[in-house]
Request: fold
Amino acid sequence: MKLIIDTDPGIDDALAIAYAALHPDIELVGLTTIFGNVTTAQATRNALYLAEKMNLSIPVASGAEKPLVLPPFAPKTQVHGLEGLGHLPAPAPVGTASSLAAAEFLCKMAERYQGELVVCPIGPITNIAHALQLDTNFSQNVDKIVFMGGALDVRGNVSPYAEANAFHDPHALDFVLASGADVTMVGLDVTLQVLLDEQDFNQIASRKNPIGGFLKELGRFYLDFYKSIGLSGCGLHDPMAIIAALYPDLFTMESIPLEAITEGEASGRTCRSQSKTRTPSLVTLGCDTEAIRDTFFSIFDR
Ligand code: BDR
Ligand code: CA
Reply:
């Protein structure tokens, strides 16, 4: 599977990038970056650093600096840390970002790989909205867009209604959901069904690949945040989008026309659309938690 991850790294973003980097059936074509857990500049720096740490020689293209319609916002640091990588200080990658902006890079790669490229946005979906605006063929040129975000039949995580990625750019999400592209939503309905606790991070660190020790270090910070909100483990949010793209059979999915609320106290909520014209999206509503844990852990044996 040829894959671009659109990311705001972010601790679970780092887990998702590691999973993709190590998986023998995934060819990571590049990373594109977005604000969310951190600013876009920090996201680009962190993505370059993570790519180097994982021995990936791939382009990193920097994305939009603000949401489609909403004003820019300052990232909250309590979930992913001051620099987005838990307790770690600001990293200093040696590489630099692509001369192409994220949306341009996405369009170019989709055109090059004609129906073969999977795009996994695991932050606010702004870059994908820009790519759809930039090139009317983008939605036909990609194979599918599998995004982490939204909460259909469960509570949100930044408001009673909204999941963080959807909340931070609901206009972009609604635009993507209305675009007619082949879209799969991997939201809190499933990502909070697979929690990683301290033992799980120990297990990752004890496997063959040395990246596990680094991820355990990041996980310490993430787990402390989840403990502070009363959960014993952190959601496997971002890796589950990659897993759903590669192994859709591990999920129960329903075909549902979706929309994102863009105003008022429910802003960022994902809900069933009443529109007769909206193309349905695939929505993950259940999952095989054991099989997902198995594929996730086994990757660190490589
Ligand atoms: C999403 O929000 C971010 O904090 C995570 O990286 C993930 O993409 C979960 O709601
Ligand atoms: Ca993310």
User: Anything to note?
Assistant: The pocket of beta-D-ribofuranose (ligand 1) is lined by residues 10, 12-13, 37, 79, 122-123, 148, 157, 163-165, 237-238 (CB under 6 Å).
